[in-house]
Amino acid sequence: FMPSAFPVAHRQKVPRTVFMGTHAPAQKKRQQQQQQQPTPTPKAVTPLPPPATNKRKKRKMTATESASATSVAAFAAVEEPQILTLTALDPKSLCAVASASSGGLFAHAVRSDELWAHCLERTFGLVGEAAKRGPKGECTKSRYKSFQEWFGPIKDIGLSTSLLEKPLQQPLCSHFVPSWATIHRTLRKEASLIPQTLRPPATAEALEKLQAFFEECSPNRGRLHSAVKGFWSLHDGQNVPGNFCRNMLKLPPVCEKHEEMTRFQGLFGGYQVYDFSGSQWFLPLVPAVELTRILRDSFSEDHPTKLVFSIGLYGRGIKFMMVDMLDGSVFAGCNTKLPSQFLPAAPDQSTSEAREAGIVRWFAEYARRLEDGTYVERALVPSEPDETQGISLFPTKGPDYSVAVTRGVEVSASSLFAPELPAQGWAYSIALRLVGTKEERGFETCQLTTRTWNIEFEGERPDTIHGDGVIGLFPILRDGGWICDQDSDPHGQYNEENTTIEGEFRYQSCSQAAASMKGHFGGTVKMVPGRSRKPSGQPFDATVAPFRLAIPEYLF
Fold first, then answer.
1. Buried residues in 398-427 as b, exposed as e (16+ CB within 10 A)
2. Quick count: other Cβ atoms within 10 Å of Cβ 535?
3. How many CB atoms lie within 10 A of CB 434?
4. For the segment 147-196, what is each residue's pLDDT rounded down to a tens digit?
5. pTM of the model
6. In angstroms, rounded to a whole number, what is the distance separating the alpha carbons of residues 392 and 389?
7. Which one of 21, 128, 382, 444 counts the least CB within 10 Å of its CB?
């Protein structure tokens, strides 16, 4: 950097040696002048003994230390003007200055806490104690280090280029940064198409429409919650397919359509049961406001400040997620329940000292479940694996999941609460596969022939159900998959003839609601070694371990 970068008033006062970050030439010249002067004869003075408490001599400063002290003193005089100059730069330019400056005034100013505190507030909305911590809550040594820690997740989200090169219209909501980073990392590992559907941050015009809609819905009720406004600060929803907007949401086709996009690629996952299938889409802010206007007439007077941010269509059933614009709490609703029965989608923290908006906790929990594999991406409709890839809301772990192995037949099962279905109860998924070796099991293949379900709810008599096969299928299991032919698929649901389908056999069905809404589902499936029409051993019952039927704390 040249001295012309400084204001004129300061340029005249700062020596060039100070600006360049080294004072060795000036120090050497002063030492030569001192050596040329005659040394005065000291008077005879009796030396005093050193104090007993201070036996160490004071170390003389080196030339480098002396120069550094002089530089700091000079910097203190001009620190504020340089910081004011640097605040006009975007983060990318500041990072370039920080890496290129090894000494001098700019090297001090570009790493000052005051400057990067300004960047943290401008970019992430972080002030005070929050600016001293990273995205995981860890303390950092400086604001510069804190900015670096926050910028890591931004690179995972894919916003680093736009974030660094131009000023933001509004700060990114720091509450959602770690969760968005987790979602992007997880979906990238799965080679998912869903990240391609995500839109850039919401525009200032969209945020103004949200503010106007809030004031229209709740005059004199309070302020729009910052977390609600910040929910769209990193991604303005998804590029929802055009026909989805026109035919189903009754909205104009304001969103772009990706060539490979299907209705199963909603960000918040989906499922299939019989003819009911779909996924939950993250709506862009403006369509979310318009859809809420359409639905508001059906809401009761008790819900004037709710905003629909996600919607899924499952045949005749419609499920939508809503956020309260006043306090940030989240609710799940559907067209099969009255508005007064909107269900909380996240636990209440009204009594907690460290209260966090429900939308923040709901989104963080969803990101955690994606990261730890509770929700995985797979075919939502088992008979159509290529066309229905999406995030499955049937869990693979937790209290709503069970697994058991009987004679080499592994049966895993799980449930999800689905009030949008006609039964207004639960959808459940049961998967079967062979484990171990042929020698360990005593058979190479085996076929499912009958099922027995035991369903029990609190305060009610147990219900036992017997039937042939499962949803009209009689799968023949073999190592690595199952055989699909006339014996296993007599009704041609899979449109396959005499072929082996790789992976586990999976089927999905539903169970109706009960008065207590608390119960368990389990039972057995009858397996015949070989085939039912040509057995190679005695039939046996494979256990379906009980899994929970309940309304969970978090609804997705």
1. eebbbbbbebbbbbbbbbbbbbbbeebbbb
2. 15
3. 23
4. 877 777 777 777 766 555 555 556 677 889 899 999 999 998 887 889 98
5. 0.78
6. 9
7. 128
